[in-house]
């Protein structure tokens, strides 16, 4: 079971692993999942936002703000903060997959703040075997990302933020020539903004509106073998309303919208068995272009700027 889960996780991470069939049948319906490399970048690193359904673009700033919306750091009330979290992943199925997240920030002055974080995703231990099933060794793949962020207030209510990210993934060593493969790496940036209104009267209580917009993981594709794969570039738009019930209690409503900024896989055309007349599992290849024939959708391998 452990091996099966790890293989499924790796399949989601490594886009186009083997000759991936993008359109599949499930319960009589055609599904067309969008997959990217290094999806661990989208996993919530902290329990608060995780318990809120991953809503974090417009919540109050804290030490984990770089993941959600780095521009919130300029509104942090404390001069500095440090946090460390450990998130078990698929714990009921596999006991040794964990996400570690170390983050911190410091206020330069009342309008500026800097932050940094380290995200480490351990995929546990995998037993490597040859074609005959003989064990050839053990391997512990991992992925990590290092962030540096800066946030600047442009007014008392509005701030902008930018974060630079280095991403490294070693999972290709499992799938390509045993443990002799090379780690894949790339770089990305986050562009973010945050708005917090002044307090206003709301039914006899004091209310505050917040809004956030974050373009995250904007960067070059990552290359595992011969194919280049999109990283999970994402658009997050959030709104929030916080109400002060009394001096020590508040109640908040938050809503985030997310859009993955990568191409949707097309539906490819499959060859038809000349005897039975049924579709096979083999995709048709256009002899003129030597590319897969698309039945519905568009060619997915666009450059990142497009």
Radius of gyration: 23 Å
Uncertain residue ranges = 1-23, 175-179
Instruction: Tell me the helix content.
Output: under 10%
Largest sheet: 10 strands, antiparallel
Q: SS-based structural class?
A: mainly beta
The overall average pLDDT, rounded, is 84
Number of strands: 22
Share of residues in strands:
over 45%
Overall domain count: 2
Give an account of the 3D structure.
By secondary structure, the protein is mostly beta strands. The protein has two domains: 2-263, no CATH class; 266-306, no CATH class. It is 8% helix and 47% strand. The chain is built from four helices and 22 strands. The strands form seven sheets. Strands 3, 4, 5, 8, 9, 10, 11, 12, 15 and 16 form a ten-stranded antiparallel sheet that branches. It starts with a helix and ends in a 10-residue tail after the last strand. The model is unreliable at 1-23 and 175-179 (pLDDT under 50).
Task: Give a brief description.
With 306 residues, this protein is mainly beta.
């Amino acid at each position: 079971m452990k091996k099966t889960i790890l293989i499924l996780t790796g399949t989601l991470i490594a886009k186009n692993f083997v000759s991936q069939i993008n359109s599949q049948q499930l319960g009589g319906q055609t599904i067309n999942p969008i997959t990217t490399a290094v999806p661990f970048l989208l996993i919530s690193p902290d329990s608060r936002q995780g318990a809120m359904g991953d809503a974090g673009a417009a919540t109050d700033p804290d030490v984990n703000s770089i993941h959600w919306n780095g521009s919130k750091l300029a509104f942090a009330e404390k001069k500095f903060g440090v946090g460390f979290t450990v998130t078990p992943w698929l714990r009921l199925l596999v006991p040794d997959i964990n996400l570690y997240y170390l983050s911190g920030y410091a206020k330069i002055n009342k309008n500026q703040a800097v932050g940094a974080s380290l995200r480490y995703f351990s995929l546990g231990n995998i037993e490597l075997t040859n074609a005959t099933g003989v064990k050839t060794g053990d391997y512990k793949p991992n992925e990590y990302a290092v962030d540096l962020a800066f946030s600047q207030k442009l007014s008392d209510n509005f701030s902008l933020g930018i974060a630079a990210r280095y991403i490294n993934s070693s999972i290709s060593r499992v799938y390509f020539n045993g443990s002799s493969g090379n780690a894949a790496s790339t770089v990305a940036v986050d562009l973010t903004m945050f708005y917090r209104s002044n307090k206003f009267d709301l039914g006899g209580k004091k209310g505050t509106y917040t809004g956030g917009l974050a373009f995250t993981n904007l960067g070059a594709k990552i290359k595992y073998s011969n194919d280049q794969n999109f990283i999970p570039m994402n658009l997050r738009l959030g709104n929030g309303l916080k109400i002060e019930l009394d001096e020590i209690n508040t109640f908040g409503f938050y809503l985030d919208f997310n859009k993955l900024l990568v191409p949707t896989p097309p539906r490819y055309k499959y060859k038809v068995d000349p005897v039975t007349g049924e579709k096979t599992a083999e995709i048709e290849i256009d002899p003129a272009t030597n590319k897969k024939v698309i039945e519905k959708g568009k060619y997915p391998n666009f450059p990142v700027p497009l």
